[in-house]
Design a protein that fits this description.
The chain has 420 residues and is of the alpha/beta class. The chain is built from 14 helices and 16 strands. Strands 1, 2, 3, 4, 5, 14, 15 and 16 form an eight-stranded mixed sheet that branches. It has a five-stranded parallel sheet with strand order 9-10-11-12-13. The mean pLDDT is 98.
């Protein structure tokens, strides 16, 4: 039996917030508080630390199969554990694409050997071509947890409506990368003063806005559970807020880089600040924070996107978009949101645990007697320097940054999978 002594247990699902002990037997939480009659085989000191549910990230790229020189299931899982994550959802843009049961089953079988819970989303369209729907019912039966063509925006409204109807039929979320390719000149940088100064065009916020407007109306029409991925535009935040008020089952993700960085950071970080959709203006960043604070944005998701150093060292317009994010997400949330008074610690944890877990109906994201022993223990006041990563990749603008929040332990299925 494992016991965590004297930690501040914070559980957004139950609103529990108290200094107490947590007892674990095998892979379950067996109780809280003092139990003199129980004998512990191992004790962890939680003094000065928060004990929360293990984090849940509904948007990661582990690049496996097909691009394992960037990341693979093993290194991605280690990176997740180092960041406090015990459950992640992998995107389908692998090679081959996850658009058939054979590829899906292979990933899920290999994922069983990982130290955390690795879930897999199915593609929406066969071959990511936006023409033919995958067999939603068969993919759901084979273990897919949701559907997305993330990485390639879907542009055919009629096709998207049919996809939403198929997702509703299997009662699973369908997630969308919202950028209209016809409005983007160069991906990865906001079309604005910085892109103009660099002379490379850019991707305007309206590229996202028109897609979000379309999809929230289709969500209202179909009743599907629709997740707006990595929201970056302030106007899109307003659109999601409107959709929720109208009763649409619309959810939204924000990444740590979108609530931390702006286009003004691009000259400092170069391609390490290139991502789709791009970081935008200070106004957009402020609107994202407002959306997080008032509940318009339900989840913090990293869009963990590993690339090799060689790829990121190319010219800006030629380098791939995306940064890694699993190992800095908590620290950026504490540093950029909690310490600055935008979110309470409980609200931050809600967006990293119970909210994403409930959208996907995972048995995760909460601390309760008899529930899964998936936890993270961290000191929110300890400043750490980001020096290295468990990920295979290092494409992060936050390397070298000093941030609040030091993870001491990550526990998954009752086993310690990371010691910090």
């Amino acid at each position: 039996m494992l016991v965590i002594r004297n930690g501040r247990v914070m559980d957004p699902a139950s609103k529990r917030d108290e200094v107490t002990d947590v007892w674990v037997k095998e892979n379950k939480i067996t109780g809280f508080g003092s139990h003199p009659e129980w004998e512990a085989d191992e004790e962890l000191d939680g003094s000065g630390c928060i004990v929360s549910p293990g984090f849940v990230d509904v948007h990661v790229h582990f690049r496996d199969p097909g691009f394992t020189y960037k990341e693979d299931l093993e290194t991605g899982s280690k990176s997740a554990a180092a960041g406090g994550y015990t459950t992640v959802v992998c995107m389908a843009n692998t090679r081959p694409i996850v658009d058939n049961p054979e590829v899906l089953k292979d990933i899920l079988k290999r994922a069983e050997n990982q130290p955390i819970h690795v879930k897999q989303a199915s593609a929406v369209s066969v071959g990511f071509r936006g023409k033919e729907l995958v067999d939603f019912e068969e993919m759901a039966r084979c273990g897919a947890c949701g559907f997305t063509d993330d990485g390639l925006p879907l542009t055919d409204a009629g096709f998207i409506k049919r996809a939403m109807e198929a997702a509703k039929k299997v009662d699973m979320p369908i997630s969308f990368h919202e950028e209209d390719p016809s409005l983007n000149e160069v991906n990865g940088i906001n079309k604005g003063i910085i892109s103009q100064r660099m002379g490379i065009g850019g991707a305007p916020a309206v590229s996202e806005d028109v897609m979000v407007a379309r999809d929230i109306m289709l969500a209202l029409e179909t009743g599907a559970k629709v997740d707006i991925q990595h929201i970056s535009s302030g106007r899109s935040v307003d659109l999601v807020r409107y959709a929720k008020k109208q009763g649409a089952k619309v959810y939204a993700e924000a990444t740590p880089h979108h609530f931390t960085l702006t286009e003004e950071d691009v000259p400092n970080y170069g391609t390490l600040c290139k991502m789709n959709p791009p970081v935008r203006t200070e106004w957009d960043r402020t609107k994202i924070i407002e959306g997080l604070a008032d509940g318009t944005i339900d989840m913090i998701a990293t869009d963990h996107a590993p690339h090799s150093t060689e790829e990121k060292e190319r010219k800006f317009a030629e380098a791939p978009s995306g940064i890694i994010g699993l190992e800095t997400a908590l620290s950026l949330g504490i540093t950029s949101l909690v310490k600055r008074g935008y979110l309470s610690m409980m609200s931050l944890l809600e967006k990293m645990t119970v909210n994403p877990a409930r959208l996907y109906k995972f048995e995760a994201g909460e601390l309760k007697e008899g529930g899964p022993a998936d936890m993270v223990i961290f000191n929110p006041d300890e400043i750490r320097t980001v020096e290295s990563f468990a990920s295979k990749a290092e494409n992060s603008p936050f390397l070298g940054a000093q941030l609040y929040g030091k993870i001491r332990y990550t526990i998954c299925d009752g086993k310690i999978v990371y010691r910090g």
